[in-house]
Write a structure and sequence with these properties.
- By secondary structure, the chain is of the alpha+beta class.
- Helix content is 24%, strand content 40%.
- The protein has six helices and twelve strands.
- The strands form two sheets. A six-stranded mixed sheet has the order 1-7-6-5-4-3.
- The longest helix has 19 residues.
- It is elongated, with a radius of gyration of 21 Å.
Amino acid sequence: MARRTREAHMARHKPEVLMTRRWSVVPGLLLALLVPLGAARARPMDGPLQQQLLALYNRYNTAIAAGKLETALALRSTAVRTTLAAQLKTAKDQQDYLAGAKEMVPDRLELRHASVNDPADKALLIVLADKRLTAGQVQNELDMRFVKEGGVWKLGDLAQGPGPADINRCRDRSYQPISAYDTSKTVALAGRIERVDFLPDHTLVVLLAGNTETCAFLPERATLQQHGLNPAILQPYRVADITGVGEKDNAQKVMVNNITVHAEE
């Protein structure tokens, strides 16, 4: 399915359920030193909890498909219900919400990532969601957040991102010397870590911002440690802020001067 067609479809049917992730490149200040990375507060989720949360999401979709809005909303977090209460004031509002939500109930899910915070009251599942529409097959990434309220897990925010076929990959991952970079071309980027490679002479971090990958180059592991940075914090699915300089001939390659990795929550 063409990307333009999919985005048009999403614009027509965009209930609260489908907040699109937005990360972009903006001008920034070139810093001389690396800054310490933030502390991580999430850990891998065990299988039983994964199944419990996927079952919760399935119950929500089942209620939506059956047109049982009240039942569906009872499964959502307090914050989501409060937001929707302000949006769904009339019968037409509710009908429109149901119509849009029904069209986005996936046919199939493929789990990509599952994590839970240390207090075990917030969790994240990232899945690939397949849906067959009139115009063709659609595959998106779906971030599902869950929160425990009164000892009971509730479905929180849902955010939709691009599927694998829609991502503009960083295909040239070769490491170039600083002379290949334009030191007057400062880049600041916030994105999700997709891949980390610790190599003998550098570290490669692939970030996904919107639907575009950026190859971010840092010093090798030992140098990171000398700067007080724990390389173990560089893990896929965490969000990182970087500043650096762009390669002269490739807008998708950045030599990093400053990185901060945010904890999963």
